[in-house]
Design brief:
The chain is α+β, with helices and mostly antiparallel strands. It is about 55% helix and about 10% strand. α1 (about 25-35) crosses α8 (about 200-220) and α4 packs parallel to α8 (about 200-220).
């Protein structure tokens, strides 16, 4: 991309200036870092996403809980070199591989990766509310209000009832560890430290983004993160450390 404008990554800010909040956008940050593609970040608070993406002409993506419905969401990239605006992390990874074939390939096995991503999200689906409740406290006020209101509407429950401290939160912790045990089993079936062997791929970026989110939300020195990092013989802490070089801020 010598001499061309950098790719624009649209991302969600938080109370830590310059640090991404969402694990969904982190997938593309890892992908761009892995491919060594220059990019800049345009930060959008949650209420700004729909009007900005509509004006940009970005495609809507499937709603996470309402089959057949779509919404404007991130990640989205804009590539000044080609004029392309691409939504959805898998579509973005495929676009980057096709458009920049001289860079390392992220989607080395698209069908297997697509199947893995669906299975991964399914394995951790019971922890989405728990992590969302904890992570929302790091959003800026305008995004936090929007996020809490829309998630309460989505799940038809008061925000305070989604994962309250106490027995419910303890149950959610157990479910999260159980989910990561399932993912660990998939990794153990493959030769090498990464999902597809000895070379990282988009499947690993999906996994490490969720882990990086946990590390950021709880704090690197927290007991919560130390517990997660140590699960499955330390696999997850090691994966975060191994892929840190591909996580540009």
């Amino acid at each position: 991309m010598s001499g061309s404008q950098p790719i624009i990554l649209y991302d969600i800010p938080c109370q830590v200036a310059g640090h991404p909040w969402s694990p969904n956008t982190m997938k593309i940050r890892y992908t761009l870092g892995y491919k060594n593609l220059p990019f800049t970040t345009t930060w959008l608070e949650y209420p700004e996403i729909e009007p900005h993406m509509r004006a940009l002409g970005a495609a809507r993506t499937p709603h996470p809980t309402l089959p057949g419905q779509t919404l404007y969401t991130l990640p989205v990239i804009e590539d000044p070199r080609t004029g392309a605006v691409v939504s959805d992390s898998l579509a973005i990874a495929a676009y980057l591989d096709k458009t920049y074939p001289d860079t390392p390939i992220a989607l080395r096995d698209p069908p297997a990766t697509d199947e893995f991503v669906a299975a991964f999200l399914g394995a951790l689906k019971d922890t989405v509310l728990f992590m969302s409740v904890v992570a929302a406290e790091l959003l800026n006020p305008v995004s936090a209000e929007y996020y809490k209101r829309t998630r309460a509407e989505r799940y038809a429950r008061a925000w305070e009832e989604l994962s309250p401290p106490g027995p419910v939160r303890d149950r959610d912790w157990r479910r999260m560890e159980e989910g990561w045990n399932v993912v660990d089993g998939w990794y153990r079936k493959n030769e090498g430290k990464y999902f597809l062997g000895h070379t990282p791929s988009f499947a690993d970026f999906v996994v490490v983004s969720r882990l990086k989110w946990c590390q950021f939300v709880f704090g690197e020195q927290s007991e919560e993160w130390k517990n997660i990092a140590g699960w499955n013989e330390g696999r997850w802490g090691e994966l975060v450390r191994e892929l840190e070089r591909y996580f540009p801020l």
